[in-house]
TrEMBL record:
Subcellular location: Cytoplasm
Main location: cytoplasm
Enzyme class: transferase
Compositional bias per record (Low complexity), positions renumbered to this chain: 9-33
Protein name: Protein-L-isoaspartate O-methyltransferase
Record's keyword terms, sorted: Cytoplasm, Methyltransferase, S-adenosyl-L-methionine, Transferase
Cellular component GO terms, alphabetical: cytoplasm
Length: 264
């Protein structure tokens, strides 16, 4: 109702507006609770304003935090994360935080997407041949798949929840990305049709490494996945497939949604 609108400024012309609605990617902005500022609803598109500048700041933060691969930074700067989140969350889209995407699932935070993408590019096979065909387990809203589509030749991404699979399709359609293939299925079984993969990346954390993932990985390829560590807490695991077997490296603690079996 009109009565509830703030008196002034009800709406600013976009030229005078901040890059995103107040609060976006500005940690110093006071939170709504107790704030004397008028509460202005975020512009629905978020974004017609100047999201490139906001992404530019996000990319600088990623670089400052240690992401150094130029292709990864360019992909993070290109893909508009705000298009993958609910309109109510648009003003948080470029903060380094995971956000709900429905059905109890989350879009991973930008720093972990960039970190994992950079790890994939470190595979021995990739160093000689570039990043060819890859498999992502856990499409979710499709954001990471879009980023991966910028750094890999071909991306197969598999999601077990039909509603999210459809949502990702909707989100990706306007981007007209032709090298990202969406599959509805149980990613615990991998996706043999696309194998062997130069890299496999999981966006959901399991209890152990599915044999199928190892089987479907190319020689010289790399798998990056959250996995339960010895104490039950999740760690990021890197597995390189070498001529002498699988070489595992345990990296930092992470916090991903669980890997589940079956399609729902
Ligand atoms: N990469 C996603 C993150 C989604 S969260 C993004 O950018 O939004 C992880 C996703 O993994 C969830 O959508 C969850 O449903 C999915 N998932 C969990 N177990 C799975 C499985 N066995 N096969 C396919 N997807 C799975």
């Amino acid at each position: 109702m009109n009565q509830r609108r703030p008196g002034f400024p009800a709406r600013l012309p976009s030229a005078a507006s901040p890059a995103l609605p107040a609060g976006a990617a500005r940690p110093a902005t006071p939170k709504a609770a107790g704030s004397p500022l008028p509460r202005i609803a975020p512009a629905p598109s978020g974004v017609g304003l100047d999201s490139a500048a906001v992404r530019g700041r996000m990319v600088r933060r990623l670089a400052d935090s240690g992401i150094s691969n130029a292709a990864v930074l360019a992909a993070m700067g290109d893909i508009e994360r705000h298009r993958f989140v609910d309109s109510a969350l648009v003003n948080q889209a470029y903060e380094d935080t995971s956000l709900p995407i429905g059905l109890g699932q989350t879009i991973s935070k930008p720093s972990i997407v960039a970190r994992m993408a950079e790890l994939l590019l470190g595979a021995p096979l990739v160093k000689t041949e570039g990043l060819g065909r890859i498999l992502e387990i856990g499409t979710g809203c499709g954001y990471q798949a879009a980023v991966l589509g910028r750094i890999a030749k071909e991306v197969y991404t598999i999601e077990r929840l039909r509603a999210l699979h459809e949502k990702a399709r909707e989100n990706l359609r306007p981007l007209r990305i032709s090298n990202v293939h969406l599959i509805l299925g149980d990613g615990m079984l991998g996706y043999p049709k696309g194998a062997p993969y130069a890299a496999i990346i999981s966006a959901a954390g399991g209890e152990g490494l599915p044999q199928q993932w190892c089987d479907q990985l190319a020689l010289g390829g790399r798998l990056v996945a959250p996995m339960a560590g010895p104490d039950g807490k999740q760690i990021l695991l890197v597995v390189d497939k070498t001529t002498t077997g699988l070489k595992q490296t345990v990296l930092e603690a992470v916090n991903f949604v669980p890997l589940k079996s079956g399609v729902a």
